[in-house]
Amino acid sequence: MVGVAAGVSLLVVLWAGGRLAIQGALGIGDLVAFTLYLGLLTWPTMSIGWMLTLWQRGRASWDRLALLLDARSPLECAGPE
What we know:
By secondary structure, the chain is an all-alpha fold. The protein has helices spanning 2-23, 28-70, 74-78. Helix content is 86%, strand content 0%.
């Protein structure tokens, strides 16, 4: 999803910036600089998404492991005979 969002944002910047450059309200250098800045922000955004995914997977794994460690064995449940 983050990759799709990065691609869509690039298209929006090129479309809107291209229109402004054609109208003369934005210089070509400014458009190129903004596009490059957007490219520089893509990797940190993707890495944050990746880290959040790893954290959520780790949390889910920990919850399952905690259930397993807290479970009582059938021998403990039977009690002394």
